[in-house]
Amino acid sequence: MLKLRSLSEGPPKELKIRLIKVPSGDKETFIASEVEERRLRMADLTISHCAADVMRASKNAKVKGKFRESLLSPAQSVKPKINTEEKLPREKLNPPTPSIYLESKRDAFSPVLLQFCTDPRNPITVIRGLAGSLRLNLGLFSTKTLVEASGEHTVEVRTQVQQPSDENWDLTGTRQIWPCESSRSHTTIAKYAQYQASSFQESLQEEKESEDEESEEPDSTTGTPPSSSAPDPKNHHIIKFGTNIDLSDAKRWKPQLQELLKLPAFMRVTSTGNMLSHVGHTILGMNTVQLYMKVPGSRTPGHQENNNFCSVNINIGPGDCEWFAVHEHYWETISAFCDRHGVDYLTGSWWPILDDLYASNIPVYRFVQRPGDLVWINAGTVHWVQATGWCNNIAWNVGPLTGLPEEGARGCLKILSDFLWPAAYQYQLALERYEWNEVKNVKSIVPMIHVSWNVARTVKISDPDLFKMIKSYCAEEVDKTPILIS
């Protein structure tokens, strides 16, 4: 066997030929015959093939896009098992929302509260009376106080159509749809405060006029009943929702941010047990506080939090908000609905049609958040919110790093032995969304590789599942580095 180098431009290539001896009288004659290598497809490779076979099979393979490989091991999954095969009756499609009523400060700092909120089986929890039990001064976040503190502060405004919370009609008012579009503009806290106040006064005036008209009308039982058909789009009010108001400036908003230090450690904006405190830089609205100023009908469309992190939301009041929530387990089904209705699940604006979810056997939690109530949105929970009154809300994200209670409360651990470890669940979902964002070409706001290394370097992990996950992920990253470089 001889190897002859072909003369061509570019890197040297080899052509394998075989010399075959043929009889030709007294002379030795050879015929050159090209050797055709046995073709091996990548799909046919098994663990029994040698390295040469692997190299030969992958030599001409084409990779679409950049190199991607999931570093999550299915064997390490800590997700709760949810039976989706059983057809649920209608009453179970509207399960009761886990609600905790606090009577004292001691209740708020109970390890049972921590474990209940972060239990992967509970997608969302509303904590009633938290502000009262901790004596939180919610007046610091009232519209009046905000105007006095920084009236010229920027407010992002979303112009929306006011609709009932369980409906989402198209522009013609003939059918319900998933897309929930709104236009964006900007104003100041002072100007939005004027709009919020005038909206309230207009509502009072309309209510008074309506009462006057009713008192003037004669009693009749033969009148035409109200129509139950789709609403007339001409009658819809256009409203403005003040959103994403940044309260990260520690000097400007010092009284407000100090007040939030009264919260239990696992709910605070910053703590050593919060994964987002180990990012190393500010992520507005995630490891900082954001404020929302609302009038009735203001909508926060359906979404999961950035990188599936947990979220804390407090209603300042004076009005209420209505919430809808679905367990993380069903997010792919909801994403498929978005695809069918032509709206991007990750970056688009959508409002689920409840009947679509019920028909797909998806339970929907639905509840009212009153002033002083704190809503804990667990990792990966799909949710959407509508204001039913005039109110302000504050919110931020957290990433629980441990399921253990604070020092001094460890004696209660025996009570908690039946709970799942929440930290590994949060970490797993954050990594899953980080990798899914890469597939969908969506930038992850949380740099999960960087966070993983920071946590591994600076935090003593008590959760055995979380320890294994972080160690495995960092090790896989080290192994992957030469491939990315080459």
UniProtKB/TrEMBL annotation:
Cofactors required: L-ascorbate
Keywords, in A-Z order: Methyltransferase, Nucleus, Transferase
Biased composition (Basic and acidic residues): 82-93
Location of region: Disordered: 74-96, 200-238
Biased composition (Acidic residues): 208-219
Domain of life: Eukaryota
SMART domains: JmjC
Entry-linked InterPro entries: Corepressor-Demethylase, JmjC_dom, KDM6A_B-like_C-hel
Catalysed conversion reaction: N(6),N(6),N(6)-trimethyl-L-lysyl(27)-[histone H3] + 2 2-oxoglutarate + 2 O2 = N(6)-methyl-L-lysyl(27)-[histone H3] + 2 formaldehyde + 2 succinate + 2 CO2
Biased composition regions of type Low complexity, renumbered to the chain: 220-232
JmjC domain residues: 252-415
Keyword Lipid metabolism carried by entry: no
GO biological process, one term: heart development
UniProt-listed Enzyme Commission number(s): 1.14.11.68
Subcellular location: Nucleus
Main location per the UniProt record: nucleus
PROSITE patterns: JMJC (PS51184)
GO molecular function, one term: chromatin DNA binding
One GO location term (cellular component): MLL3/4 complex
Family statement: Belongs to the UTX family.
Name listed for the protein in its UniProt record: [histone H3]-trimethyl-L-lysine(27) demethylase
Lineage: Eukaryota, Metazoa, Chordata, Craniata, Vertebrata
